[in-house]
Amino acid sequence: MRFTFPKEEKLKREKQIREVFDKGSSLTVFPLKLIYLKTENKISKFQVGFTVPKKNFRKAVERNRLKRLLRESYRLNKHRIFNRTEGSYAFMFLYLGKEMTSFQDVEAAMCKVFDKFLKKIDDGKADS
What we know:
With 128 residues, this protein is α+β, with helices and mostly antiparallel strands. Helix content is 45%, strand content 21%.
């Protein structure tokens, strides 16, 4: 698997983002919150967006740094879920912390969120 984050995987459309927030399910592993929604996307298996609240980080420099950390962590760890899921999903990652953090902390939280997501998806298949 290639460790890339191509344009097709980016969640950009306001309508899709609003739908993920309105209809999606969520998982939280501090300092990350994952909101996900199963979609009918034929182009890409996952579409992903990242957000950091302006309320907690007033300076754009800090928000952008955290979003870069989130994107890099996703890019390096998406192989954990890519081949283990069926269908396509839209993800929104929210940063809940109130302070800047290191890449290692973000990456550890990202791995835990992915594991929790896989467990939830597997439980959902068993119920069906």
